[in-house]
Write a structure and sequence with these properties.
alpha+beta, 5-stranded antiparallel sheet, elongated
């Protein structure tokens, strides 16, 4: 989920941006299909949504989604006579959900970004490839997220599309339950190899941690071994030195006695 701030979109600008975004995402679909990738990320373009939102309503919805549990909130109140009343609705749009969140001073991690008119871009699942394609259309920046060239995609350079893109400002994103700023969002989109690259990086990170721990343990073991061996040799040398000195003194004494 990506958050953008916008200013006074015109209908022609909005239509043009959506058209170019869908075209870019469909190209990623085609590329993945040509590579024979058949996973949950395949055909993701149809599930991507770009829409304007009401900031206040969206903020309240985030709190309910994050903090309200409709199962725990479901109950059947009773009257003073002990007879049950009609069950109270406890779904996320109910009064019960609203009161459960409104009575508590709760803040959401995205709260600092919820200011002014906003545009929300949502993905059904995390995929750096699709994220990179979306950023290249909505928030292009060289060299990692270059805008499409005029000769390959002249529609993107229509005045309406360019004016609309200029009115978009990337604020941040929520990815896998974590909130990222604009730089963090671009970092996720810049992971090479798409979701496979993300998995490879995770595996490499875990392997590096394991190998680092093994090296530390091996190094500690070697250090302890050399320390003990050095101490043993030192004690042996001291023992030999004391034994040799005592014997020499006895021999000298006997010699003096004979003289």
């Amino acid at each position: 989920m990506l958050l953008f701030q916008h200013s006074n979109f015109k209908s022609t600008e909005w239509v043009g941006i959506r058209r170019e975004l869908m075209s870019a995402l469909q190209k990623v679909d085609a590329s993945r299909a040509a590579e024979g990738l058949d996973d949950p990320a395949g055909g993701l373009a149809e599930g991507v949504r770009l829409q304007t939102i009401q900031t206040g309503i969206f903020s309240a919805a985030l709190k309910i989604t994050e903090y309200y549990d409709p199962i725990k909130g479901s109950f059947t109140p009773t009257t003073s006579s002990g007879l049950p009343n009609q069950p109270i609705l406890t779904h996320t749009l109910s009064r019960t959900a609203h009161e459960a969140v409104a009575k508590k001073k709760l803040t959401h991690a995205l709260a600092p970004l919820l200011s002014g008119p906003l545009v929300l871009l949502t993905f059904p699942t995390v995929s750096p490839q699709y994220l990179k394609a979306a950023l290249s259309i909505l928030s292009p920046s060289a060299p990692n997220f270059p805008a499409p060239l005029r000769r390959t995609n002249p529609g993107y350079h229509d005045p309406a599309v360019q004016n609309g893109v200029a009115k978009l400002l990337l604020l941040g994103a929520r990815i896998e339950g974590r909130v990222f700023d604009a730089d963090g969002t671009r970092w996720v989109g810049g992971i090479g190899g798409g979701i496979e690259g993300l998995r490879a990086q995770s595996v490499a990170m875990l392997q590096s941690v394991g190998s680092g721990l093994t090296s530390v343990l091996e190094g500690a073991g070697r250090s302890l071994y050399f320390t003990i061996e050095g101490r043993r040799e030192m004690l042996e040398e001291e023992g030999e030195g004391k034994g040799g000195g005592g014997r020499q003194g006895k021999v000298d004494g006997e010699g003096l006695g004979f003289e």
